[in-house]
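User: I'm writing a tutorial on reading structure tokens. Could you give me a worked example: one chain, its sequence, then its tokens, then a sentence or two explaining what the tokens reveal?
Assistant: Sure. Here is the example chain.
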Amino acid sequence: MTPVAGAAPTLSIGGVQLDAPVVQAALAGYSDRAMRVIARRYGAAYSLGEVLLDQFVATVGTNRRNLARLAVADDEHPVGGQLMGANPDDFPPAARRLVAEGYDVIDINFGCPVKKVLGRCRGGFLLSQPQTALEIVEKVRTAVPPHVPVTLKMRRGLDDSPRSADNFWAIFDGAFARGVAAITVHGRTVQQKYVGPSNWDFLAAVKRHAGSRTVIGSGDLFSAEACVAMLDRTGVDGVSVARGAIGNPWIFAQTRALLLGSPALAWPTIREQREALRDHWQLAVALHGEQLAGRTMRKFAIKYARVHPDFLAVRDAFIGVKVNADWQAVLDRFYSADGPGRDPATDVDETV
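And here are its predicted structure tokens:
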């Protein structure tokens, strides 16, 4: 399987037209420029950078490691930048900085369920504060040029209480009224974190309520079949692949094929896996430098290993990678001889 740019049902985010309804989500600690470029090469119609604190973006300075977190490649447009914070006044300068760095869309995170984020009144906590959340939306929309879409990431509530449901709808409708172009909704509550199934019935109800407004669904998208099933069952306009895209850029091309009515694409051969691993490594080194790339890429490599027929040995070998020589040694040992890849779905627990 090779990178594709084929046609599929489309998706619009304001004035940004996408050629397929499958996108890569913002992933804290993962969706840097290297991951996003790989995702786009293998069929993602759009990708979001990892969530960034508003205060960090506004005061990033000139440190190479910090600037790498803002870096945008020429060949990844359109690309979105995601912001998170607590104080509405901190968002406008950060949003303007992301536009200046080349981001085409500004996304606001009201969904992160991490404990330390909630404790600082950020992310998913703001689902309990509709007035503050909508003030943030309004300030960001006012801060950036009219042609730059503003979008939102939400979960279906802080918890399953009636009050949380009321807050969800107040923010959802209020954000659209204030000019957001699209809202991504994850089917779990903040309280659930990543435990239990994503509630796709709720996503269907959200889309029915939204009508022609753009809704992107999220949660439990670990295969192309799941991406298509969410589109079919819920009616959402697009799907946002998060953890299912880590070490699995092929999910985007696979989803495109199914949407076109084509036969399911085979999992990549060992040689095709090697090409993706080689390219991802080179992009990470160019962005971060060799030492940091070694640390960053290990967490990707153990996911890439799942598609290799000898995946446990490959995973263990990648855990020890530190520098380019280590990386190339693993490729030479396990990826020199070609052969079919494997479908990891049968033995990987994706609920963790």
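What the tokens reveal: Residues 34 and 283 are 5 Å apart (CA to CA). Residues 1-6, 348-352 have pLDDT under 50 and may be disordered.
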